[in-house]
Amino acid sequence: MTATIPASEHPGRVEGTLMQVDHPELRGKVAVVTGAGRGMGARFSAALARRGVHVVGADIDESLMGEAASAITREHEGVDGAGDVVATGVDVRDREAQQRVAELARDRFGRLDLWINNAGVFPEAPAIEVPVSQMQATLSINVEGVLYGAQAAASVMEPGGSIINMASVAAVRVRRGRSAYCSSKAAVAHLTECLAVELGDLGVRVNAIAPGFVDTEMTRWVQDDPQALAKALDSIPLHRLGSPEEIVGPMLFLASDSARYVTGHILAVDGGSRHV
Predict the structure, then answer these.
(1) Which residues, given as ranges, of the chain have pLDDT below 70?
(2) Which UniProt keywords apply (predicted)?
(3) Is the pTM of the predicted complex or chain greater than 0.85?
(4) Which domains are present in the chain?
(5) Of 108, 189, 196, which Cα lies nearest the Cα of 150?
């Protein structure tokens, strides 16, 4: 896996080009990506479609998802063998809604090979002030949403299927003011291991990616604060933020046959920050 990543003038940031990696065995496969209307979900969908994977992108904002799917389709107009991208709405807290997404993928494309549980929220509040509503919503979206997605995927997948959950370095590192988020991602990490054991009986692999500070909308709060950015960079052995493309590469690996004997693994993509 190689990538050319030129330096940016912004301290601690890189501008990631498309990963120069291909997994030919992915072509013709079918994926569902939740939270695909923006951010990493949209980037995952684009990367998969570029490599010939048909994608059902699902987001709670169906209009936004439609715009993202159209943008990806336009982006790949000149790409030979690019996969289709279909947009649909979903509230990941709704188990039946997730089941309908899985059935849409199967009915539209005849199969389901990959499911990425990407949808999530990133709330903030001091630990002693976290309201009941915030905690309930965070656990419902970030944890129950992963479980319901995995259940839906497993009900449709044949042996060889792969489920990828989005955990976080926050599962093992404390982020002040993010206790609801950190605890939910710790739950996602352990849930991934539980699902890997039980879904292994069906021949389905379950893994998770645990990003650190990545240059996305979710880290805008630290990038816009010079002091916070300096502190964050000091906690990362590579002394820079990750680029979204540096999360795409590990996703493609976990989705591919290169990882066909990998399950129950939490793959940290954090520049080493979990060790500091």
Answers:
(1) 1-19
(2) Oxidoreductase
(3) yes
(4) 26-214+243-269 (3.40.50.720)
(5) 196
